[in-house]
């Protein structure tokens, strides 16, 4: 039987003597809104910021090390705190999904003996998690229908190879590209437009806004001589 584990920075927790304790608490992302009281009006008026807040994911673990809890603490800290930015996080209890996470705070191990103790590992996670199948790059045929399998509008990575004026339509959204030189990469998550080698910005070729792929079926078509590849990034609420 495979023990529960999480993987972060391409390393697994059970390689560091960490084992999940019973009674894990899972918190979902929350909608960002505020209840406002208006004089003369009963109840509240809800003001929405039209976004989701990041959430906390806490792994309650036991840690065991033959070489001693002090050395285990050092090894775990040097693993989890070696890069404080946002990284992929997966865990065995939620297969098929990838979170975007960063360590929230430091580590504090409760020492229960010379070789073992308990620790809470706190992650801050982005409010959406990605379906693994939506992380693969798809070669798209002109006129093909692409189905967003998530529950949120997807922000894809689009690679277009070709030159000249190109109009790419995804569902009801149109990308208007002009005077493309060999190709362009559109990242709808970071809202960047670059050359195929990623070295030059190409915003001067884009005459429309970045957009998303709505949930459900979306027909994809384009004008001009080009090939299109899409990494769809299907997502659900974390």
From TrEMBL:
<dbReference type="InterPro" id="IPR006520">
    <property type="entry name" value="Dit_BPSPP_N"/>
</dbReference>
<dbReference type="InterPro" id="IPR008841">
    <property type="entry name" value="Siphovirus-type_tail_N"/>
</dbReference>
<dbReference type="Pfam" id="PF05709">
    <property type="entry name" value="Sipho_tail"/>
</dbReference>
<protein>
    <submittedName>
        <fullName>Phage protein</fullName>
    </submittedName>
</protein>
<feature type="domain" description="Siphovirus-type tail component RIFT-related">
    <location>
        <begin position="30"/>
        <end position="124"/>
    </location>
</feature>
